[in-house]
Amino acid sequence: MGSLSIVHWIIIIAVALLLFGGRGKISSLMGDFAEGIKAFKKGMSEDEKVATTPADQKTIDHKPTESIASQPESHKAG
């Protein structure tokens, strides 16, 4: 029960060949993963630069405008 049979060794070797065999699949996957992280970081830094430009910032004017201050006669209580 403690040792591996021949079937177990065949499965282990097959999985190892799938993972590590054939032109460095793991290294290419990790390279793609690293490129994705770099692209994500670049996108996040570009978003921060765009969000902090003063031209894009909006201010809130707390003074009521004329259209809000003057209500039509039908809306007044009386």
Would you give an account of this structure?
The chain has 78 residues and is mainly α. It has three helices and no strands. The protein has helices spanning 6-20, 25-51, 66-69. The longest helix has 27 residues, at 25-51. The radius of gyration is 32 Å and the shape is elongated.
Q: What share of residues are in beta strands?
A: under 5%
- Oligomeric category: single chain
Which class of secondary structure composition applies to the elements?
Answer: mainly alpha
Largest sheet: none
Number of helices: 3
**Helix-strand topology string:** HHH
**Beginning-to-end CA distance, first to last residue:** 93 Å
| Shape estimate | elongated
Q: Give the tally of β-strands.
A: 0
Mean pLDDT: 74
- Spans of at least 5 consecutive residues whose pLDDT stays below 50 are none
Give the fraction of residues assigned to helices.
55-70%
Q: What is the radius of gyration computed over CA atoms, rounded to a whole number of angstroms?
A: 32 Å
